[in-house]
Amino acid sequence: MSAVLSKADVMVSAEELISVRHEVDIAPAGIAGFAAIMADGETRELSPELSRIIARVIRTLALNGSVTVGSLPDELTSNTAAEVMGVSRPTLLKMAKAGDIDSFKVGSHTRFKRDDVMNLKAKREVARKAAMMDLLEIRDEIENHK
C-alpha cells in the first residue's frame, strides 16, 4: 500500500485572510456548524464531521496564514511517513529503531500508523517551538548584559 500526497493549492488574498481572521475573532466560543447555499437557493446544513473539518481549516488559516488539507490512509509506507514528518526516510527508520515511533513490517517493508506519525510530528513541533523560545530568551539575556 503506497500513498501519494497530492496537492491542489487554494490561495487566499490578503483581504480574504483578514476576513477569515475577523470571523474567528468574533466567534470566540467556536463555530458549531456550517450550512451551504445550493445553486437552487436551498440552504443545506453540513454534517457535523464536515463542519468540524471546515472549522479547523478556518482556525488554522486564521492563526497561521496558511493551511494544508489532505487525507492519509491508516497505514503509511516509510517514504510517505517520512514526507509527512519532513525528514528523510533513513532518519525516520533510525527514529523507529531508537523507539521514538512504533513501526511494523508487512513482508520486508516497514509501515507506520498514521496516528503515530501525526503524534510524533506534533511532539517534534512543540519541542522545536520550545527550543526557539529558549534561544530567544538567551539572546535577550545576552543583549541585556551588554
What is the CATH first-level class name of the largest domain? Mainly Alpha
Overall outline = flat
Fraction of residues in β-strands: 5-15%
Regions with little confidence, pLDDT below 50 for 5+ residues: 1-5
CATH topology of the largest domain: Multidrug-efflux Transporter Regulator, Chain: A, Domain 2
Q: Can you count the helices?
A: 5
* End-to-end distance: 58 Å
Q: Which architecture of the largest domain per CATH? A: Orthogonal Bundle
Biggest sheet details? 3 strands, antiparallel
Helix percent reads: 40-55%
Describe the structure.
The chain is mainly alpha-helical. The protein has two domains: 14-64, no CATH class; 75-144, Multidrug-efflux Transporter Regulator, Chain: A, Domain 2, CATH 1.10.1660.10. 53% of the residues lie in helices and 12% in strands. It has a three-stranded antiparallel β-sheet. Strands 1-2 form a two-stranded antiparallel ribbon. Strand 1 (35-37) and strand 2 (43-45) form a beta hairpin. Helix 3 packs across helix 4 (89-97). The longest helix has 31 residues, at 114-144. It is flat. Residues 1-5 have low confidence and may be disordered. One of its GO terms (molecular function) is DNA binding. This is Helix-turn-helix domain-containing protein. Residues 76-123 form the Helix-turn-helix domain.
